[in-house]
Amino acid sequence: MAFGRRNDEEVVKEETKVWECTSETCNCWIRDNFKSSEVPKCPICKSEMRQSTKELQAIVNHSKNFM
Question: Which of 8, 44, 59, 65 could form a disulfide bond with 28, CB atoms 3.0-4.6 angstroms apart?
């Protein structure tokens, strides 16, 4: 049966560049390779964002539209 099966694939995490909202009331963040402009504004509250890093699951953005 498939109900008891677990995915044995290991989740690969890596240090990833992100942009974090500077607003105290907002906890939004965006991966650097998914940003919409060179220095993005927060998509939630429109505040400034600052560059930082997070330990995140590795994913690749194959879109030609990102900067």
Answer: 44
pLDDT digits (tens, 9 = 90+) for 9-51: 777 899 999 999 999 999 999 999 889 899 999 999 999 999 9
User: Which residues contact residue 34 at a Cβ distance below 8 angstroms, ignoring those fewer than 6 apart?
Assistant: 61, 66
Non-local CB neighbours of 59 within 8 Å, separated by 6+ positions: 31
What is the identity of the amino acid at 59? I
**C-alpha–C-alpha distance, residues 4 and 58, integer Å:** 26
The structural domain count of the chain equals: 1
Q: Is residue 43 part of a domain?
A: yes
**Residue 28's Cα: distance from chain center in Å?**
10
Q: How far apart are CA 46 and CA 14, in angstroms?
A: 28
In a domain, 5, yes or no: no
